[in-house]
Amino acid sequence: MIVDAHQHFWRLQDRQGQWPPASLEAIHHDFGPPDLVPHLQAAGVDATVLVQSLPSLTDTHWMLSVAERTPWVRGVVGWVDFKAADAPEQIAELARHPRLKGLRPMLQDLPDDDWIADPACDPAAEAMQRHGLVFDALVLPRQLRGLSRFAQRHPGLSIVIDHAAKPLIAQGEIEPWHKDMAALAALPQVHCKISGLLTEAGERRNAADLRPYTQALWELFGPSRLLWGSDWPVLRLAASYADWWELAHLLARQFKPSPHPDDLRALFGDNAVRFYRLEPC
Fold this sequence. Notes:
single chain; 8 strands; globular
């Protein structure tokens, strides 16, 4: 399967007082499966992973209901409060749904860079591991060291770094992002998504500006631990689905050393199928 490993749906009625603001006209709309279908068909994408965008159990249950009636949504990454006293019980209940594949605390919005490194998160992480769930890490570069400490404490927990931790592409900065990503890449259970890069790039959205970052990811994580995602509809702030699809393929073909065709199939689908344990379409 060709898999978009990171996309969102939302209803504005559920997001009062939440992001996105009305000033972001391109994404201040409801988005559901009918809106994404034409883009998937044009790109030849077979399946997607639907990822949370609200810190809400209600939103997680809504996403699971969407997946139930949308055959090509093969997995859902939901949300729980990792530090809630009953987090392990909540995780066990959610894990009963066959489309629930992972969980994602919205770490990038938290002021404490080391929030996830707090041992108070351990019971939730251990529950995720028991139920075979993936931890999606929505982090910024300043939070990578805390994530590394968390990952080292939980070597059996599958972790994927969303949007490559949002490197400062617009500023042309690669350090200390590269060094901190290397420390995480040294842990075999950590994967990374090539997604969300264009919305971090400002005016530096061409292949030449993005290449140092994607090449670094290729060198650090290799062909078996990278997943491609669109981050649609957030992507609409920077480019069309087709534009990112084509640019991602161009960047992947330019990796050094050159990727084997099997490596490209892994990046654009096989790794997501294996990592999220997706059922075939």
